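Notes to self after the Tuesday call (sharing in case useful).
The group wants a holo model before anyone commits to mutagenesis around the pocket. I volunteered. Ligand is thiamine diphosphate. Logging inputs and output together so the record is complete.
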Amino acid sequence: MSDPDWWGPQGPQEVPDLFGRRSLREKREPIRFLDPTGRALTDLPVSDREVLELHKLMLYCRTFDRWIQRVHPLGAFSRYAPFEGQEASMVGSASALSDLDWIIPTYREYAVFLVRGVPVRELLLRLVVRKGDPLKGHELTLYGSRRYRIVMPAGAVGIMTSVAVGIAWGIKKRGAREVVMTYLGDGATSKGDFHEGLNMAGVLRVPAVFFCQNNRYAISLRVERQTASPTIAEKGMAYGIDWYRVDGNDVVAVRHVTSTLAERARSEYVPFLVEALTYRLGPHTTVDNPRVYRSDEEVMEWRAQDPLIRTRAYLKERGMWSDDEERVYVERVESELNAEIERVLKEPELEPEVILEDVYSYPTREVLRSMEELRKQLGGIRVSEGHRTPT
Ligand SMILES: Cc1ncc(C[n+]2csc(CCOP(=O)(O)OP(=O)(O)O)c2C)c(N)n1
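Result:
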């Protein structure tokens, strides 16, 4: 390895880091500012006004997530991956970025899209199930947009790690001050792509933050079955990548850690691996039944760690928020969403070809060929009683 000094002269037992931690043991402790009851454990690195903004953002996202699953008997859409419980991880990390930074989400990062300012309309156009066509929209839910610098994710878990390295390498070659934030789950770290991507990120020293939300499950498989390593984050060490663990249900900690790392990545062209410890309170997707693989008691324990409980209690204690304000806020968001879906349902549907747009400035020959193929296939398919049946 060309630069072994980053972890200090004592080897990996001494790991001085950006947050004053020195030993491996200390570094494994998740960084936290707000405890589960909303008590500040130390001076906060953000102002109380910022805590209020973060709370409102999380509340907006939660309202969206619950609403979307409620508005249709099928769960609104043919398939949707809920994120309740992970709001602090998503909002804290996405709000730490600038508009020039790049985001690679997974199928679950709707809160990241919302924080980025993607209009709800854009999401609904892709998600909403039209009358008589319960599968419509399904193929559009993996969505990206050059305009928002959000890269369309792949359905295959884990493969975007290497894509992130490519984009980040491009940033470095251009000499730009940007960072790529790649989202991945604990399950994705079992894939070879994760290791290949991290390996190249370490070698090329690219401005990328790999943000792993350890929500404890890859569908039904617990994280303990994914890895024998004490933490996911410390896997970065093997690739010469500095790594951090953060309480993923503490939005203040997530925001502080990711904004510090993103700035360092932009200015010094270095990658980081972050493990945000959180929990998916809902099902894996709207077609999953989590009771088959986890107990109600376990979910109840994690309910007590709900990221919104912390910020709500912190703000109420300071007289900056009340239950009434929260109720009014949620009602307002719900009525905005209701109005939006009414509008979207009156709009013409997106053409399936949109999945092939928004990647290249000009479509390549390969894209044009795929589009032609897609049109041909769709032309020969009829939707009947919820199944796609070739005619
Ligand atoms: C290569 C690949 N294998 C399996 C699947 C099926 N699959 C979809 S989501 C998922 C779980 C991924 O878990 P994780 O990375 O922890 O993310 P989470 O869904 O918990 O956010 C699996 C196995 C897939 N999409 N791609």
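Two things stood out.
DSSP finds twelve helices and nine strands in the chain.
Residues 1-5, 381-391 have pLDDT under 50 and may be disordered.
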